[in-house]
Amino acid sequence: MNRTIWLASYPKSGNTWMRMLIANLSAVDGKPVDINDLPERGGIASARAPFDHLLLIDSGLMTHDEIDRLRPRVYEQLARGAQDDEYDRLEAEPPVRFVKVHDAYTLTPDGEPLLAGARGAEGAIVIVRDPRDVAPSLANHNRTGVDEAIAFMNDRNAGFCARATRQHNQLRQQLPGWSGHIASWLDQSDIPVHLVRYEDMKTDTAGILRRTLAFAGRDATEEEIQRAVAFADFAQLKEQEIEKGFREAPRPRAGGNFFRRGEAGAWRDELTAEQVARIEAEHAAMMLRLGYELSTATRLAHVG
Question: Which pTM was predicted?
Answer without folding.
Answer: 0.89
